[in-house]
Write a structure and sequence with these properties.
The complex is a heterodimer of chains A (320) and B (311). Chain A contains 14 helices and no strands. With 320 residues, chain A is mainly α. Chain A is globular, with a radius of gyration of 23 Å. Chain B has 12 helices and no strands. The chains are: A mainly alpha (320), B mainly alpha (311).
Protein backbone atom coordinates (compact mmCIF):
# COMPACT_ATOMS: atom_id res chain seq x y z
CA UNK A 1 0.00 0.00 0.00
CA UNK A 2 2.84 2.39 0.86
CA UNK A 3 4.42 1.80 -2.51
CA UNK A 4 1.10 2.49 -4.16
CA UNK A 5 0.62 5.77 -2.30
CA UNK A 6 4.08 6.98 -3.28
CA UNK A 7 3.53 6.09 -6.93
CA UNK A 8 0.11 7.68 -6.98
CA UNK A 9 1.38 10.88 -5.35
CA UNK A 10 4.24 11.13 -7.84
CA UNK A 11 1.77 10.68 -10.69
CA UNK A 12 -0.41 13.48 -9.33
CA UNK A 13 2.48 15.87 -9.12
CA UNK A 14 3.58 14.94 -12.61
CA UNK A 15 0.09 15.61 -13.90
CA UNK A 16 0.01 18.98 -12.20
CA UNK A 17 3.43 19.81 -13.62
CA UNK A 18 2.29 18.98 -17.16
CA UNK A 19 -0.82 21.13 -16.77
CA UNK A 20 1.37 23.94 -15.51
CA UNK A 21 3.59 23.64 -18.58
CA UNK A 22 0.57 23.59 -20.91
CA UNK A 23 -1.01 26.65 -19.30
CA UNK A 24 2.30 28.51 -19.37
CA UNK A 25 3.06 27.62 -22.98
CA UNK A 26 -0.33 28.49 -24.44
CA UNK A 27 0.24 32.26 -24.77
CA UNK A 28 3.62 31.54 -26.38
CA UNK A 29 1.99 29.34 -28.98
CA UNK A 30 -0.72 31.84 -29.85
CA UNK A 31 -0.38 33.40 -33.29
CA UNK A 32 0.41 37.10 -33.46
CA UNK A 33 0.95 39.09 -30.29
CA UNK A 34 -1.36 37.73 -27.58
CA UNK A 35 -0.72 40.80 -25.45
CA UNK A 36 -2.04 43.00 -28.25
CA UNK A 37 -5.09 40.79 -28.58
CA UNK A 38 -5.79 40.82 -24.86
CA UNK A 39 -5.16 44.52 -24.37
CA UNK A 40 -7.18 45.43 -27.46
CA UNK A 41 -6.18 47.18 -30.63
CA UNK A 42 -6.43 50.67 -29.15
CA UNK A 43 -4.40 49.98 -26.01
CA UNK A 44 -1.68 52.45 -25.04
CA UNK A 45 1.95 51.29 -25.31
CA UNK A 46 2.21 51.31 -21.49
CA UNK A 47 -0.81 49.07 -21.16
CA UNK A 48 0.57 46.80 -23.86
CA UNK A 49 3.87 46.62 -22.01
CA UNK A 50 2.07 45.81 -18.75
CA UNK A 51 0.10 43.02 -20.40
CA UNK A 52 3.23 41.60 -22.03
CA UNK A 53 5.01 41.61 -18.69
CA UNK A 54 2.16 40.03 -16.82
CA UNK A 55 1.94 37.31 -19.44
CA UNK A 56 5.68 36.89 -18.95
CA UNK A 57 6.16 37.11 -22.70
CA UNK A 58 9.13 39.45 -22.31
CA UNK A 59 11.01 36.56 -20.69
CA UNK A 60 12.28 33.27 -22.03
CA UNK A 61 10.03 30.23 -21.88
CA UNK A 62 12.26 28.68 -19.22
CA UNK A 63 11.95 31.78 -17.04
CA UNK A 64 8.18 31.74 -17.59
CA UNK A 65 8.01 28.14 -16.45
CA UNK A 66 10.11 28.89 -13.38
CA UNK A 67 7.82 31.78 -12.47
CA UNK A 68 4.74 29.64 -12.99
CA UNK A 69 6.04 26.92 -10.72
CA UNK A 70 6.97 29.34 -8.00
CA UNK A 71 3.63 31.16 -8.35
CA UNK A 72 1.77 27.90 -7.97
CA UNK A 73 3.72 26.78 -4.93
CA UNK A 74 3.21 30.12 -3.24
CA UNK A 75 -0.41 30.20 -4.47
CA UNK A 76 0.24 33.73 -5.64
CA UNK A 77 -0.96 34.49 -9.14
CA UNK A 78 -0.42 38.23 -9.08
CA UNK A 79 -3.06 40.90 -9.47
CA UNK A 80 -6.18 40.80 -11.57
CA UNK A 81 -6.08 42.82 -14.84
CA UNK A 82 -9.63 44.01 -14.60
CA UNK A 83 -9.54 44.82 -10.90
CA UNK A 84 -6.10 46.31 -10.33
CA UNK A 85 -4.84 45.97 -6.80
CA UNK A 86 -6.95 42.91 -6.07
CA UNK A 87 -4.98 39.71 -5.68
CA UNK A 88 -6.06 36.84 -7.91
CA UNK A 89 -5.72 34.53 -4.94
CA UNK A 90 -8.38 36.36 -2.96
CA UNK A 91 -10.81 36.38 -5.91
CA UNK A 92 -10.18 32.70 -6.48
CA UNK A 93 -10.67 31.77 -2.83
CA UNK A 94 -14.04 33.56 -2.68
CA UNK A 95 -15.20 31.66 -5.74
CA UNK A 96 -13.79 28.44 -4.39
CA UNK A 97 -15.77 28.92 -1.19
CA UNK A 98 -18.97 29.45 -3.19
CA UNK A 99 -18.29 26.45 -5.39
CA UNK A 100 -17.67 24.29 -2.33
CA UNK A 101 -20.98 25.40 -0.85
CA UNK A 102 -22.81 24.43 -4.03
CA UNK A 103 -20.96 21.12 -4.36
CA UNK A 104 -21.73 20.12 -0.77
CA UNK A 105 -25.40 20.95 -1.05
CA UNK A 106 -25.61 19.48 -4.55
CA UNK A 107 -24.06 16.21 -3.41
CA UNK A 108 -26.33 16.09 -0.34
CA UNK A 109 -29.19 16.01 -2.84
CA UNK A 110 -27.58 13.95 -5.61
CA UNK A 111 -26.14 11.06 -3.61
CA UNK A 112 -29.28 9.82 -1.81
CA UNK A 113 -31.55 10.29 -4.83
CA UNK A 114 -29.19 8.64 -7.32
CA UNK A 115 -28.24 5.80 -5.00
CA UNK A 116 -31.90 5.13 -4.28
CA UNK A 117 -32.51 5.10 -8.04
CA UNK A 118 -29.66 2.67 -8.60
CA UNK A 119 -30.78 0.36 -5.78
CA UNK A 120 -34.32 0.35 -7.12
CA UNK A 121 -33.11 -0.40 -10.65
CA UNK A 122 -30.96 -3.26 -9.37
CA UNK A 123 -33.70 -4.68 -7.18
CA UNK A 124 -36.19 -4.58 -10.05
CA UNK A 125 -33.64 -5.30 -12.74
CA UNK A 126 -34.76 -6.01 -16.30
CA UNK A 127 -38.21 -4.57 -15.63
CA UNK A 128 -39.62 -1.41 -17.16
CA UNK A 129 -38.71 0.46 -13.97
CA UNK A 130 -35.05 -0.52 -14.34
CA UNK A 131 -34.98 0.47 -18.00
CA UNK A 132 -36.73 3.78 -17.28
CA UNK A 133 -34.25 4.71 -14.54
CA UNK A 134 -31.20 3.75 -16.58
CA UNK A 135 -32.36 5.30 -19.87
CA UNK A 136 -33.66 8.53 -18.33
CA UNK A 137 -30.42 8.84 -16.43
CA UNK A 138 -28.28 8.35 -19.51
CA UNK A 139 -30.36 10.79 -21.55
CA UNK A 140 -30.30 13.48 -18.86
CA UNK A 141 -26.61 13.22 -18.15
CA UNK A 142 -25.73 13.65 -21.82
CA UNK A 143 -27.45 17.04 -22.07
CA UNK A 144 -25.32 20.14 -21.35
CA UNK A 145 -26.13 21.53 -17.92
CA UNK A 146 -26.98 24.96 -19.29
CA UNK A 147 -29.76 23.39 -21.36
CA UNK A 148 -31.26 21.76 -18.27
CA UNK A 149 -30.65 25.02 -16.42
CA UNK A 150 -32.72 27.17 -18.79
CA UNK A 151 -35.45 24.54 -18.94
CA UNK A 152 -35.66 24.61 -15.13
CA UNK A 153 -35.79 28.40 -15.23
CA UNK A 154 -38.80 28.26 -17.54
CA UNK A 155 -40.53 25.27 -15.94
CA UNK A 156 -39.80 25.82 -12.24
CA UNK A 157 -38.48 29.28 -11.45
CA UNK A 158 -41.13 31.27 -13.30
CA UNK A 159 -44.29 29.46 -12.14
CA UNK A 160 -43.13 28.48 -8.60
CA UNK A 161 -42.02 31.37 -6.44
CA UNK A 162 -40.09 29.11 -4.02
CA UNK A 163 -37.33 28.73 -6.62
CA UNK A 164 -34.92 31.62 -6.97
CA UNK A 165 -33.68 32.72 -10.38
CA UNK A 166 -30.43 33.98 -8.90
CA UNK A 167 -28.64 31.31 -6.93
CA UNK A 168 -26.36 33.53 -4.88
CA UNK A 169 -27.96 33.82 -1.42
CA UNK A 170 -27.88 37.27 0.25
CA UNK A 171 -25.23 37.86 2.90
CA UNK A 172 -26.05 36.44 6.30
CA UNK A 173 -28.78 34.17 4.93
CA UNK A 174 -29.78 31.29 7.18
CA UNK A 175 -29.40 27.67 6.19
CA UNK A 176 -32.97 27.31 4.90
CA UNK A 177 -32.73 30.44 2.79
CA UNK A 178 -29.37 29.31 1.41
CA UNK A 179 -30.88 25.95 0.47
CA UNK A 180 -33.79 27.73 -1.20
CA UNK A 181 -31.40 29.78 -3.31
CA UNK A 182 -29.20 26.81 -4.19
CA UNK A 183 -32.13 24.54 -5.02
CA UNK A 184 -32.29 25.10 -8.80
CA UNK A 185 -28.57 24.66 -9.50
CA UNK A 186 -28.56 21.62 -7.20
CA UNK A 187 -31.48 20.11 -9.12
CA UNK A 188 -29.57 20.75 -12.35
CA UNK A 189 -26.52 18.99 -10.89
CA UNK A 190 -28.85 16.13 -9.98
CA UNK A 191 -29.86 15.68 -13.63
CA UNK A 192 -26.21 15.69 -14.69
CA UNK A 193 -25.08 13.09 -12.14
CA UNK A 194 -28.17 10.96 -11.58
CA UNK A 195 -27.64 8.63 -14.53
CA UNK A 196 -23.97 8.18 -13.84
CA UNK A 197 -24.25 7.42 -10.12
CA UNK A 198 -27.42 5.36 -10.47
CA UNK A 199 -25.70 3.19 -13.08
CA UNK A 200 -22.68 2.49 -10.87
CA UNK A 201 -24.86 1.77 -7.84
CA UNK A 202 -27.01 -0.52 -9.96
CA UNK A 203 -24.02 -2.46 -11.26
CA UNK A 204 -22.36 -2.93 -7.86
CA UNK A 205 -25.68 -3.78 -6.23
CA UNK A 206 -26.38 -6.47 -8.82
CA UNK A 207 -22.96 -7.95 -8.12
CA UNK A 208 -23.70 -7.92 -4.40
CA UNK A 209 -27.17 -9.40 -4.92
CA UNK A 210 -25.73 -12.28 -6.94
CA UNK A 211 -23.07 -13.06 -4.37
CA UNK A 212 -23.25 -16.23 -2.30
CA UNK A 213 -23.46 -14.39 1.00
CA UNK A 214 -26.64 -12.66 -0.18
CA UNK A 215 -28.22 -15.92 -1.21
CA UNK A 216 -27.30 -17.40 2.15
CA UNK A 217 -28.83 -14.40 3.91
CA UNK A 218 -32.10 -14.85 2.02
CA UNK A 219 -32.07 -18.56 2.81
CA UNK A 220 -31.58 -17.81 6.48
CA UNK A 221 -34.99 -16.18 6.21
CA UNK A 222 -34.00 -12.52 6.48
CA UNK A 223 -36.40 -10.02 4.93
CA UNK A 224 -35.41 -8.10 1.82
CA UNK A 225 -34.91 -4.97 3.89
CA UNK A 226 -32.62 -6.79 6.31
CA UNK A 227 -30.58 -8.33 3.51
CA UNK A 228 -30.14 -4.95 1.86
CA UNK A 229 -29.17 -3.23 5.09
CA UNK A 230 -26.79 -5.87 6.41
CA UNK A 231 -25.27 -7.35 3.29
CA UNK A 232 -25.96 -5.57 0.03
CA UNK A 233 -25.58 -1.90 0.94
CA UNK A 234 -22.17 -2.05 2.54
CA UNK A 235 -20.82 -3.92 -0.45
CA UNK A 236 -22.35 -1.72 -3.12
CA UNK A 237 -22.21 1.78 -1.63
CA UNK A 238 -18.55 2.18 -0.82
CA UNK A 239 -17.38 1.65 -4.41
CA UNK A 240 -20.11 4.03 -5.57
CA UNK A 241 -18.99 6.81 -3.25
CA UNK A 242 -15.37 6.28 -4.23
CA UNK A 243 -16.14 6.52 -7.92
CA UNK A 244 -18.18 9.66 -7.31
CA UNK A 245 -15.02 11.19 -5.86
CA UNK A 246 -13.27 10.92 -9.21
CA UNK A 247 -16.06 13.01 -10.72
CA UNK A 248 -16.18 15.68 -8.02
CA UNK A 249 -13.55 17.82 -9.69
CA UNK A 250 -15.89 18.52 -12.58
CA UNK A 251 -18.31 20.25 -10.23
CA UNK A 252 -15.64 22.76 -9.33
CA UNK A 253 -15.13 24.75 -12.47
CA UNK A 254 -16.76 22.49 -15.03
CA UNK A 255 -20.19 23.99 -14.46
CA UNK A 256 -19.56 27.24 -16.29
CA UNK A 257 -22.91 27.35 -18.08
CA UNK A 258 -24.81 26.51 -14.93
CA UNK A 259 -23.10 29.19 -12.85
CA UNK A 260 -23.72 31.72 -15.61
CA UNK A 261 -27.43 30.98 -15.91
CA UNK A 262 -28.08 31.16 -12.17
CA UNK A 263 -25.64 34.06 -11.69
CA UNK A 264 -23.69 31.99 -9.20
CA UNK A 265 -20.21 33.33 -8.35
CA UNK A 266 -18.35 30.02 -8.38
CA UNK A 267 -15.07 28.97 -9.97
CA UNK A 268 -16.60 28.26 -13.38
CA UNK A 269 -18.07 31.74 -13.43
CA UNK A 270 -14.74 33.23 -12.37
CA UNK A 271 -12.92 31.54 -15.23
CA UNK A 272 -15.58 32.56 -17.70
CA UNK A 273 -15.40 36.17 -16.55
CA UNK A 274 -11.62 36.03 -16.77
CA UNK A 275 -11.89 34.92 -20.40
CA UNK A 276 -14.60 37.43 -21.16
CA UNK A 277 -12.56 40.34 -19.83
CA UNK A 278 -9.23 38.94 -21.06
CA UNK A 279 -7.95 38.81 -17.48
CA UNK A 280 -5.07 36.40 -17.99
CA UNK A 281 -3.69 36.23 -14.43
CA UNK A 282 -7.17 35.49 -13.13
CA UNK A 283 -7.63 32.84 -15.82
CA UNK A 284 -4.36 31.14 -14.95
CA UNK A 285 -5.11 31.23 -11.21
CA UNK A 286 -8.61 29.86 -11.76
CA UNK A 287 -7.61 27.05 -14.10
CA UNK A 288 -4.71 25.95 -11.90
CA UNK A 289 -6.95 25.96 -8.82
CA UNK A 290 -9.44 23.76 -10.62
CA UNK A 291 -6.62 21.47 -11.71
CA UNK A 292 -5.36 21.17 -8.12
CA UNK A 293 -8.84 20.38 -6.82
CA UNK A 294 -9.39 17.87 -9.60
CA UNK A 295 -6.07 16.26 -8.76
CA UNK A 296 -6.85 16.05 -5.05
CA UNK A 297 -10.33 14.63 -5.72
CA UNK A 298 -9.11 11.86 -8.03
CA UNK A 299 -6.15 11.19 -5.74
CA UNK A 300 -8.30 10.66 -2.67
CA UNK A 301 -10.82 8.62 -4.65
CA UNK A 302 -8.07 6.40 -6.04
CA UNK A 303 -6.53 5.92 -2.60
CA UNK A 304 -9.96 5.04 -1.22
CA UNK A 305 -10.56 2.53 -4.00
CA UNK A 306 -7.10 1.02 -3.54
CA UNK A 307 -7.58 0.76 0.19
CA UNK A 308 -10.80 -1.15 -0.35
CA UNK A 309 -9.71 -3.22 -3.30
CA UNK A 310 -6.13 -4.54 -3.37
CA UNK A 311 -6.45 -5.46 -7.03
CA UNK A 312 -6.64 -1.79 -7.97
CA UNK A 313 -3.22 -1.24 -6.38
CA UNK A 314 -1.77 -3.89 -8.59
CA UNK A 315 -3.16 -2.43 -11.79
CA UNK A 316 -1.40 0.90 -11.26
CA UNK A 317 1.91 -0.81 -10.55
CA UNK A 318 1.53 -2.81 -13.75
CA UNK A 319 0.43 0.08 -15.91
CA UNK A 320 2.97 2.48 -14.48
CA UNK B 1 4.95 -7.44 -48.31
CA UNK B 2 3.89 -3.84 -48.64
CA UNK B 3 0.92 -2.30 -46.92
CA UNK B 4 -0.69 0.49 -48.88
CA UNK B 5 -1.86 2.92 -46.24
CA UNK B 6 -5.25 3.45 -47.86
CA UNK B 7 -6.08 -0.15 -47.12
CA UNK B 8 -5.42 0.26 -43.43
CA UNK B 9 -8.91 1.35 -42.63
CA UNK B 10 -11.43 -0.74 -44.39
CA UNK B 11 -14.78 0.85 -43.54
CA UNK B 12 -16.34 -2.30 -42.12
CA UNK B 13 -13.16 -3.37 -40.42
CA UNK B 14 -12.80 -6.56 -42.42
CA UNK B 15 -9.21 -7.49 -42.92
CA UNK B 16 -8.23 -7.68 -46.55
CA UNK B 17 -8.47 -11.33 -47.58
CA UNK B 18 -5.03 -12.79 -47.69
CA UNK B 19 -2.64 -15.08 -45.98
CA UNK B 20 -3.72 -14.03 -42.50
CA UNK B 21 -7.42 -14.80 -42.79
CA UNK B 22 -8.73 -18.26 -43.51
CA UNK B 23 -12.08 -18.69 -45.22
CA UNK B 24 -13.69 -20.18 -42.11
CA UNK B 25 -12.85 -17.30 -39.80
CA UNK B 26 -14.01 -14.82 -42.42
CA UNK B 27 -17.34 -16.63 -42.56
CA UNK B 28 -17.81 -16.60 -38.80
CA UNK B 29 -16.86 -12.99 -38.72
CA UNK B 30 -19.47 -12.18 -41.36
CA UNK B 31 -22.05 -14.10 -39.38
CA UNK B 32 -21.19 -12.25 -36.18
CA UNK B 33 -21.44 -8.98 -38.02
CA UNK B 34 -24.82 -9.87 -39.50
CA UNK B 35 -26.09 -10.80 -36.04
CA UNK B 36 -24.78 -7.51 -34.63
CA UNK B 37 -26.50 -5.58 -37.38
CA UNK B 38 -29.77 -7.36 -36.64
CA UNK B 39 -29.48 -6.61 -32.92
CA UNK B 40 -28.75 -2.98 -33.70
CA UNK B 41 -31.65 -2.56 -36.10
CA UNK B 42 -34.09 -4.05 -33.60
CA UNK B 43 -32.91 -1.95 -30.66
CA UNK B 44 -35.44 0.81 -29.92
CA UNK B 45 -32.75 3.18 -28.64
CA UNK B 46 -30.83 2.92 -31.89
CA UNK B 47 -33.92 3.50 -34.01
CA UNK B 48 -35.13 6.52 -32.04
CA UNK B 49 -31.63 7.98 -32.03
CA UNK B 50 -31.24 7.45 -35.77
CA UNK B 51 -34.57 9.14 -36.49
CA UNK B 52 -33.58 12.18 -34.40
CA UNK B 53 -30.12 12.43 -36.00
CA UNK B 54 -31.53 11.96 -39.51
CA UNK B 55 -34.03 14.74 -38.93
CA UNK B 56 -31.29 17.18 -37.89
CA UNK B 57 -29.04 16.13 -40.75
CA UNK B 58 -31.89 16.86 -43.16
CA UNK B 59 -32.44 20.29 -41.64
CA UNK B 60 -28.72 20.97 -41.84
CA UNK B 61 -28.61 19.97 -45.51
CA UNK B 62 -31.87 21.55 -46.67
CA UNK B 63 -32.92 24.17 -44.10
CA UNK B 64 -35.06 25.96 -46.69
CA UNK B 65 -37.32 22.93 -46.98
CA UNK B 66 -38.20 23.10 -43.29
CA UNK B 67 -37.95 26.77 -42.41
CA UNK B 68 -40.93 29.06 -42.82
CA UNK B 69 -38.89 32.29 -42.64
CA UNK B 70 -35.30 33.29 -43.26
CA UNK B 71 -33.03 32.84 -40.19
CA UNK B 72 -32.37 36.58 -39.93
CA UNK B 73 -35.67 37.73 -41.39
CA UNK B 74 -38.13 39.73 -39.28
CA UNK B 75 -41.58 38.20 -39.07
CA UNK B 76 -44.23 40.69 -40.25
CA UNK B 77 -48.01 40.49 -40.11
CA UNK B 78 -50.38 41.32 -42.98
CA UNK B 79 -50.23 45.02 -42.05
CA UNK B 80 -46.48 44.94 -42.46
CA UNK B 81 -45.73 45.45 -38.74
CA UNK B 82 -42.87 43.40 -37.35
CA UNK B 83 -43.85 41.14 -34.48
CA UNK B 84 -41.44 41.16 -31.53
CA UNK B 85 -41.53 38.58 -28.71
CA UNK B 86 -44.69 37.04 -30.12
CA UNK B 87 -45.62 33.77 -28.38
CA UNK B 88 -45.92 30.64 -30.56
CA UNK B 89 -48.75 30.97 -33.10
CA UNK B 90 -49.81 29.97 -36.60
CA UNK B 91 -47.36 32.25 -38.45
CA UNK B 92 -44.40 31.79 -36.16
CA UNK B 93 -44.70 28.24 -34.85
CA UNK B 94 -42.15 28.68 -32.06
CA UNK B 95 -42.87 32.42 -31.62
CA UNK B 96 -40.54 35.30 -32.41
CA UNK B 97 -37.53 36.60 -30.52
CA UNK B 98 -36.79 40.13 -29.29
CA UNK B 99 -35.72 41.17 -32.79
CA UNK B 100 -38.84 39.71 -34.36
CA UNK B 101 -37.05 36.75 -35.95
CA UNK B 102 -38.85 33.42 -36.28
CA UNK B 103 -37.58 31.06 -33.56
CA UNK B 104 -38.61 27.93 -35.48
CA UNK B 105 -36.70 28.93 -38.60
CA UNK B 106 -33.65 29.80 -36.52
CA UNK B 107 -33.78 26.43 -34.80
CA UNK B 108 -33.94 24.71 -38.20
CA UNK B 109 -31.02 26.72 -39.55
CA UNK B 110 -29.05 26.27 -36.32
CA UNK B 111 -28.34 22.57 -36.86
CA UNK B 112 -25.83 23.17 -39.65
CA UNK B 113 -22.93 24.80 -37.74
CA UNK B 114 -22.96 22.19 -34.99
CA UNK B 115 -23.38 19.27 -37.39
CA UNK B 116 -20.34 20.40 -39.37
CA UNK B 117 -18.03 21.22 -36.48
CA UNK B 118 -18.83 18.28 -34.16
CA UNK B 119 -18.20 15.45 -36.64
CA UNK B 120 -15.15 17.25 -38.06
CA UNK B 121 -13.56 17.56 -34.61
CA UNK B 122 -14.47 13.99 -33.72
CA UNK B 123 -13.00 12.54 -36.91
CA UNK B 124 -9.71 14.42 -36.49
CA UNK B 125 -9.49 13.29 -32.87
CA UNK B 126 -10.40 9.71 -33.83
CA UNK B 127 -7.66 9.46 -36.45
CA UNK B 128 -4.89 10.96 -34.33
CA UNK B 129 -6.11 9.33 -31.12
CA UNK B 130 -6.35 5.86 -32.68
CA UNK B 131 -2.89 6.16 -34.20
CA UNK B 132 -1.41 7.30 -30.88
CA UNK B 133 -3.24 4.56 -28.99
CA UNK B 134 -2.18 1.82 -31.42
CA UNK B 135 1.44 2.89 -31.53
CA UNK B 136 1.88 3.48 -27.79
CA UNK B 137 -0.07 0.35 -26.87
CA UNK B 138 1.95 -1.82 -29.24
CA UNK B 139 5.47 -0.52 -28.73
CA UNK B 140 5.14 0.69 -25.10
CA UNK B 141 8.51 1.86 -23.77
CA UNK B 142 9.43 5.36 -22.65
CA UNK B 143 7.68 7.20 -25.48
CA UNK B 144 4.47 5.52 -24.33
CA UNK B 145 5.23 6.61 -20.76
CA UNK B 146 5.63 10.24 -21.78
CA UNK B 147 2.61 10.35 -24.08
CA UNK B 148 0.43 8.56 -21.55
CA UNK B 149 1.36 11.01 -18.79
CA UNK B 150 0.64 14.03 -21.02
CA UNK B 151 -2.72 12.55 -22.02
CA UNK B 152 -3.54 11.90 -18.37
CA UNK B 153 -2.77 15.51 -17.54
CA UNK B 154 -5.10 16.72 -20.30
CA UNK B 155 -7.80 14.39 -19.00
CA UNK B 156 -7.45 15.77 -15.50
CA UNK B 157 -8.91 19.20 -16.24
CA UNK B 158 -12.59 19.60 -17.14
CA UNK B 159 -12.40 19.66 -20.93
CA UNK B 160 -14.71 22.65 -21.18
CA UNK B 161 -12.18 24.75 -19.25
CA UNK B 162 -9.28 23.78 -21.49
CA UNK B 163 -11.47 24.43 -24.52
CA UNK B 164 -12.27 27.91 -23.20
CA UNK B 165 -8.58 28.65 -22.61
CA UNK B 166 -7.51 27.42 -26.06
CA UNK B 167 -10.30 29.16 -27.97
CA UNK B 168 -9.71 32.35 -26.00
CA UNK B 169 -5.98 32.29 -26.76
CA UNK B 170 -6.17 31.45 -30.44
CA UNK B 171 -9.36 33.35 -31.24
CA UNK B 172 -12.94 32.16 -31.65
CA UNK B 173 -12.89 31.02 -35.26
CA UNK B 174 -14.28 27.78 -36.61
CA UNK B 175 -10.90 26.12 -37.29
CA UNK B 176 -9.69 26.98 -33.77
CA UNK B 177 -12.86 25.65 -32.14
CA UNK B 178 -12.77 22.43 -34.17
CA UNK B 179 -9.04 22.07 -33.51
CA UNK B 180 -9.47 22.67 -29.77
CA UNK B 181 -12.16 20.02 -29.42
CA UNK B 182 -10.18 17.60 -31.58
CA UNK B 183 -7.10 18.21 -29.41
CA UNK B 184 -9.03 17.58 -26.20
CA UNK B 185 -10.64 14.39 -27.48
CA UNK B 186 -7.39 12.87 -28.68
CA UNK B 187 -6.60 12.02 -25.06
CA UNK B 188 -9.65 9.88 -24.18
CA UNK B 189 -9.65 8.15 -27.57
CA UNK B 190 -5.94 7.37 -27.39
CA UNK B 191 -6.32 6.06 -23.84
CA UNK B 192 -9.15 3.70 -24.80
CA UNK B 193 -7.45 2.47 -27.98
CA UNK B 194 -4.16 2.04 -26.11
CA UNK B 195 -5.81 -0.14 -23.47
CA UNK B 196 -7.46 -2.28 -26.17
CA UNK B 197 -4.22 -2.54 -28.14
CA UNK B 198 -2.29 -3.51 -25.02
CA UNK B 199 -4.70 -6.41 -24.46
CA UNK B 200 -4.61 -7.51 -28.11
CA UNK B 201 -0.83 -7.37 -28.32
CA UNK B 202 -0.59 -10.10 -25.65
CA UNK B 203 -2.65 -12.54 -27.74
CA UNK B 204 -1.25 -15.46 -29.67
CA UNK B 205 -2.09 -14.24 -33.14
CA UNK B 206 0.11 -11.20 -32.63
CA UNK B 207 2.96 -13.34 -31.32
CA UNK B 208 2.47 -15.62 -34.32
CA UNK B 209 2.63 -12.70 -36.72
CA UNK B 210 5.77 -11.50 -34.99
CA UNK B 211 7.29 -14.96 -35.31
CA UNK B 212 6.48 -14.96 -39.02
CA UNK B 213 8.62 -11.87 -39.18
CA UNK B 214 5.87 -9.44 -40.14
CA UNK B 215 6.74 -5.78 -39.93
CA UNK B 216 5.28 -3.84 -36.99
CA UNK B 217 3.30 -1.60 -39.33
CA UNK B 218 1.64 -4.67 -40.81
CA UNK B 219 0.88 -6.17 -37.41
CA UNK B 220 -0.62 -2.94 -36.11
CA UNK B 221 -2.60 -2.13 -39.24
CA UNK B 222 -3.78 -5.53 -40.42
CA UNK B 223 -3.77 -7.69 -37.32
CA UNK B 224 -4.53 -5.47 -34.35
CA UNK B 225 -6.50 -2.62 -35.87
CA UNK B 226 -9.42 -4.73 -37.16
CA UNK B 227 -9.75 -6.20 -33.67
CA UNK B 228 -9.83 -2.87 -31.85
CA UNK B 229 -12.10 -1.25 -34.45
CA UNK B 230 -15.18 -1.98 -32.35
CA UNK B 231 -13.64 -0.04 -29.47
CA UNK B 232 -12.83 2.83 -31.83
CA UNK B 233 -16.39 2.92 -33.19
CA UNK B 234 -17.91 3.04 -29.71
CA UNK B 235 -15.45 5.69 -28.57
CA UNK B 236 -16.11 7.82 -31.66
CA UNK B 237 -19.88 7.80 -31.26
CA UNK B 238 -19.56 8.61 -27.56
CA UNK B 239 -17.13 11.43 -28.35
CA UNK B 240 -19.46 12.80 -31.01
CA UNK B 241 -22.05 13.29 -28.28
CA UNK B 242 -19.47 15.06 -26.13
CA UNK B 243 -18.32 17.18 -29.09
CA UNK B 244 -21.88 18.44 -29.57
CA UNK B 245 -22.09 19.01 -25.81
CA UNK B 246 -18.85 21.01 -25.78
CA UNK B 247 -19.63 22.99 -28.93
CA UNK B 248 -23.05 23.95 -27.65
CA UNK B 249 -21.54 25.02 -24.33
CA UNK B 250 -18.78 27.03 -26.03
CA UNK B 251 -21.27 28.87 -28.22
CA UNK B 252 -23.49 29.47 -25.18
CA UNK B 253 -20.44 31.10 -23.59
CA UNK B 254 -20.04 33.33 -26.63
CA UNK B 255 -17.17 31.37 -28.16
CA UNK B 256 -18.71 30.45 -31.50
CA UNK B 257 -17.11 30.70 -34.89
CA UNK B 258 -19.85 32.83 -36.38
CA UNK B 259 -21.51 36.17 -35.93
CA UNK B 260 -24.03 36.60 -33.08
CA UNK B 261 -26.81 37.08 -35.60
CA UNK B 262 -26.05 33.74 -37.27
CA UNK B 263 -28.49 31.01 -36.27
CA UNK B 264 -26.73 28.94 -33.61
CA UNK B 265 -28.53 27.08 -30.81
CA UNK B 266 -26.07 27.85 -28.04
CA UNK B 267 -25.77 31.52 -29.01
CA UNK B 268 -29.56 31.83 -29.22
CA UNK B 269 -29.99 30.38 -25.74
CA UNK B 270 -27.36 32.80 -24.40
CA UNK B 271 -28.98 35.77 -26.12
CA UNK B 272 -32.47 35.08 -24.81
CA UNK B 273 -32.40 33.22 -21.50
CA UNK B 274 -32.57 36.37 -19.41
CA UNK B 275 -36.05 37.04 -20.78
CA UNK B 276 -37.39 33.82 -19.27
CA UNK B 277 -38.17 35.67 -16.03
CA UNK B 278 -40.32 38.04 -18.13
CA UNK B 279 -42.13 34.87 -19.28
CA UNK B 280 -40.69 35.10 -22.79
CA UNK B 281 -39.51 31.49 -22.69
CA UNK B 282 -39.84 30.42 -26.34
CA UNK B 283 -36.70 31.97 -27.86
CA UNK B 284 -34.65 30.06 -25.23
CA UNK B 285 -36.55 26.85 -24.68
CA UNK B 286 -36.79 25.75 -28.33
CA UNK B 287 -33.09 26.02 -29.22
CA UNK B 288 -32.29 24.44 -25.82
CA UNK B 289 -34.60 21.53 -26.64
CA UNK B 290 -32.92 21.23 -30.05
CA UNK B 291 -29.51 20.81 -28.38
CA UNK B 292 -31.00 18.32 -25.94
CA UNK B 293 -32.67 16.30 -28.72
CA UNK B 294 -29.51 16.07 -30.82
CA UNK B 295 -27.28 15.08 -27.89
CA UNK B 296 -29.77 12.51 -26.62
CA UNK B 297 -30.14 11.12 -30.17
CA UNK B 298 -26.39 10.67 -30.58
CA UNK B 299 -26.09 9.11 -27.12
CA UNK B 300 -28.91 6.66 -27.77
CA UNK B 301 -27.08 5.48 -30.88
CA UNK B 302 -23.73 5.34 -29.06
CA UNK B 303 -25.27 3.38 -26.20
CA UNK B 304 -26.90 0.85 -28.53
CA UNK B 305 -23.71 0.33 -30.51
CA UNK B 306 -21.76 -0.20 -27.31
CA UNK B 307 -24.29 -2.74 -26.02
CA UNK B 308 -24.31 -4.67 -29.30
CA UNK B 309 -20.53 -4.80 -29.64
CA UNK B 310 -20.10 -5.91 -26.04
CA UNK B 311 -22.76 -8.63 -26.17
Amino acid sequence: MGRFIVRRLLLSFLTLAIILVLITLIPNLAPGDPARKIAGGTASPERLQAVTESLGLDKSVVAQLRDSISDTFRLDFGESFTRPGVAVTSLVSTSLFNSTKLVIFGMALVLPVSIAGGLLAAYRRDTWLDRTIVNTGVALSSVPEFVVGVLFLALLAVPISYFKVIADPPDGAGILTTIQYLMLPALTILTVYFGYIARITRASTITALNADYTRTAFMRGLTTLQVFRRHVLRNSLVPTVAVVGTQLGYLFGGMVGLELIYSYPGLGRLIFDAVDSADYPLLRGGVLTVAIIYMLATLSADLLIAWMNPRARLSLSEAG
Amino acid sequence: MTTPPEQLDQPDGSPVAGQTTTEVSADTRRQVRREQRRLLLTSPGFLVGTVIITFWILTALFPELFATWGPKETVVNSAGESLLRESPNGTAWFGTDRLGRDVYSRVVHGSRPILIAAPAATIIAAIIGSLLGLVTGYFRGWIDEIISRVLEAILSIPSILLAIVIVFTFGATNPVIIGAIAFLFIAPIARTVRAATLAEAQLDYVTAARMRGERSLFIIGREIFPNVLGVVVVEVTVRLGYAIFTLATLSFLGLSGGNVTDPNWGVDVAQNYQQIVAEVWWPTVFPALAIGALVVGVNLVADSIEKVLKS
